[in-house]
Design a protein that fits this description.
Layout: H1 14-20, H2 44-61, E1 71-72, H3 80-85, H4 87-99, H5 107-110, E2 123-130, E3 133-134, H6 136-141, H7 143-149, E4 155-163, E5 168-172, E6 179-187, E7 193-198, E8 201-204, E9 210-213, E10 219-224, E11 229-237, H8 244-257, H9 259-278
Antiparallel strand pairs: 1-9, 2-3, 2-4, 4-11, 5-10, 6-9, 6-11, 7-8, 7-10
Helix pairs in contact: 1-9, 2-8
């Protein structure tokens, strides 16, 4: 399969990232376990959109072509077999790109809107796709993963989610019911308990296995082990009929152009620039 990457409108150049004015990740502001306060000066959509989310989510749920349960059956999503069949190759690329030499950045330093739930250096992320935008440099470092995720119907985001020993991600909810989340277990420590609560369901990861769930349900994560948990996190569009599909598409289009996405997009580029500078 030809997976050559060409730059398109879904990519940001280094100069474009600088123009956005993203925070400089080289300032030394990251301290282990340091709390980071969520941004208060956020756009209207981010500050007040959550109050409208329930209304839109109910409309979207009524148009869903798959169940609206907190945890979904992987058999309803045939493409997950491709992830399971190639999990070792994906794991090896995750280790090389996001764990060896220089670790992936803290999610709190990439996404200002995750700071309240993502302690510095406890939850890291290595983005390949984010809300439809490709991170070309990262994709080139993970060619097998890049080819595989490109085949996922309705792909929205893909990144390696890295949870440090002892980390706890407090209860939170996703942006929209128009998206569904899939985790592929890559590294799952066994010397303790690493688990996630989705609504009233408690689930656990296994290496090489997939877990599909609706992240608009209240969910919470614990890594009570001495090891690092790594999953490939995929967000994809929920199969919908109209009018839910129309509503979800419009909502995602607004989110995609908002600071929620654009700030994170620029910060990823700035982080990559900083790492290249450190490498000389």
């Amino acid at each position: 399969m030809n997976c050559a990457l060409r730059r398109d409108s879904n990519e940001m150049t280094d100069s474009e990232a600088r123009a956005v004015g993203a925070p400089d990740q080289r300032r030394g502001s990251e301290q282990p376990d340091a709390p980071m306060r969520a941004e208060t000066n956020r756009p209207f959509l981010i500050k007040y959109g959550k109050h409208l989310r329930g209304f839109f989510d109910r409309l979207i749920a009524s148009s869903s072509l798959v169940p609206n349960d907190p945890v979904l059956d992987v058999r309803d999503f045939g493409w997950t077999a491709l992830l399971r069949a190639n999990w070792q190759a994906i794991r090896d690329e995750a280790i090389a790109a996001a764990l060896d030499r220089r670790p992936a950045p803290s999610l709190a330093s990439i996404s200002p809107d995750h700071r309240a739930i993502a302690p510095v250096n406890k939850w890291r992320s290595f983005f390949l796709w984010g809300y439809g935008y490709r991170v070309r440099e990262n994709l080139e470092r993970c060619p097998a993963t890049s080819c595989i995720v490109a085949q996922i119907p309705g792909l929205n985001s893909a990144f390696f989610s890295i949870l440090a020993p002892g980390a706890h991600i407090p209860a939170h909810r996703g942006v929209t019911k128009g998206l569904i989340t899939c985790h592929l277990g890559l590294i799952v420590p066994r010397d303790g308990d690493v688990r996630m609560r989705v609504a009233d369901r408690m689930v656990r990861w296994s290496e090489g296995e997939t877990l599909v769930f609706d992240d608009t349900y209240d969910h919470e994560v614990w890594n009570e082990t001495s090891g690092t948990r790594v999953v490939l996190l995929i967000q994809f569009r929920r199969p919908l009929r109209n009018p839910g599909r129309w509503i979800a598409d419009k909502f995602l289009r607004v989110v995609r152009s908002s600071a929620f996405v654009q700030d994170a997009r620029a910060n990823v580029m700035r982080w990559n620039e900083a790492m290249k500078a450190l490498d000389g």
